[in-house]
Automatic annotation (TrEMBL):
It comes from the Eukaryota. This is Amine oxidase domain-containing protein. It comes from Micromonas pusilla. Gene3D superfamilies: 3.90.660.10, FAD/NAD(P)-binding domain. Residues 28-332 form the Amine oxidase domain. GO terms for molecular function: oxidoreductase activity. Belongs to the flavin monoamine oxidase family. InterPro entries: Amino_oxidase, FAD/NAD-bd_sf, Flavin_monoamine_oxidase.
């Protein structure tokens, strides 16, 4: 349990420094080590310094088998397919949720269920027998949605304890691919200290080919992780295209490949996005897998929680988010059946 209160990053760096002192390590090995740290910061979407040494990988035993896959046309295709029959109100940012306390007067003669009232920034109100909160953990941490009564101590503690860091992407569209089309990804090892190592350390090949229609054109995605991602957002992603191009030219021009300027570019800055305030959850120093369970617990009579940060075994993933939705759909459906049977549905 002592390891739950130690930092993964600090322990890794301390161990490496000891080995380097003892073994006269070549600089190249240290550079490679730093690249792997950047890669780990990408996988956890946070600085290794904040991650719990004992708990950061508590979900590993539950990983599904099989390769990672990229969905041609983007993940939005899954979302669109699932949302086909659903009414969705865009431009309705939720600011306040009022929910009923659990009631003891269950049974056929009990009072009607009070229901949940959800208020939006544009003033619109929604009333329902149940509400499912799926805003990202970053939004809960920020407090941009208030709850009445306030969320219980156990849930608030979990919201504070779990981490929600940043991983960003720079998307570049080129006239045509100039890179090696036989690889999915390629890395860039640089002389990076803790602050710089995550800057464009890896590129994803999203180019459209005869066989793969991953995107609409010759697209490369550069990753920015760790401290570099925070700095990237603080600077408002200034000079980002010029910097990424410097890296790409450093990699390719020494091989005699001419690297053209991109036709278009876009940056994802999740840390400053008001509907995310970060990328995905992690277990930071002092937190445990139990905090994910606390986030998943229903509150009062009618307020439910889903989303990646409610999945102890599959956090930080799309499939985790999806499965949490199924879990809560079952829970809500069961409760509504009970209320209906007792003639207590509010709506
Ligand atoms: C850069 C990056 C790379 C990733 N790579 C992978 C990967 O390779 N594989 C993988 O499985 N997962 C990956 N993930 C993680 C995955 O995207 C998330 O775990 C998943 O999308 C979380 O789903 P969710 O439903 O919990 O939250 P979200 O998808 O964030 O949905 C929350 C929704 O709430 C909305 N919202 C926020 N605030 C409000 C408000 N006040 N009122 C109303 N609506 C609000 C948001 O607009 C959003 O639509 C990645 C994430 C990032 C950022």
């Amino acid at each position: 349990h002592g390891a739950d209160h130690l930092s993964l990053g600090r322990e890794l760096e301390r161990t490496w420094a000891e080995k380097a002192r003892a073994g006269n390590k070549p600089q190249m090995e240290t550079d490679l080590f730093n690249w792997h740290l950047a890669n780990l910061e990408f996988a956890n979407a946070d600085r290794l310094e904040v991650l719990s040494l004992g708990q950061w990988d508590q979900d590993d035993p539950y990983d599904f088998d099989g390769d990672h896959v990229w969905l041609p046309g983007g993940n939005v295709r899954l979302v669109s397919a699932m949302a086909r029959e659903l009414p969705i109100f865009y431009g309705h940012a939720v600011t306040h949720v009022e929910y009923p306390a659990p009631r003891s007067d269950e049974g056929p003669n009990g009072l009607a269920h009070e229901g949940v009232v959800v208020t939006c920034k544009n003033g619109r109100e929604f009333r329902a027998d149940a509400a499912l909160v799926t805003v990202p953990l970053g939004v809960l941490k920020k407090g941009s949605v208030s709850f009445e009564p306030p969320l219980p101590e156990r849930k608030s503690r979990a919201i504070n304890a779990l981490g929600f860091g940043v991983l960003d992407k720079v998307i570049l569209l080129f006239p045509k691919p100039f890179w090696d089309m036989s690889v999915d990804t390629f890395g860039y090892v640089t002389r990076g200290d803790r602050d710089r190592r995550g800057r464009y350390f890896m590129f994803y090949n999203y180019a459209k080919t005869e066989e793969h229609h991953l995107s609409g054109g010759a697209v490369l995605i550069a990753l920015v992780s760790g401290e570099a991602a925070l700095e990237f957002e603080r600077s408002g992603a200034a000079n980002v295209v010029a910097e990424t191009m410097t890296v790409l030219r450093r990699i390719y021009e020494r091989r005699g490949v001419t690297v053209p300027d991109p036709i278009d570019s876009k940056c994802a800055c999740w840390g400053t996005d008001e509907f995310a305030y970060g990328s995905y959850s992690n277990i930071s120093v002092g937190a445990t897998g139990e905090d994910y369970d606390a986030l998943a617990e229903p509150v009062g009579d009618g307020l439910y929680f889903a989303g990646e940060a409610t999945m102890r075994r599959h956090p930080a993933t799309m499939h985790g988010a999806f499965l949490s939705g199924m879990r809560e759909a079952a829970r809500i459906s069961e409760r509504m059946r009970e209320l209906n049977k007792a003639g207590r549905l509010a709506s």
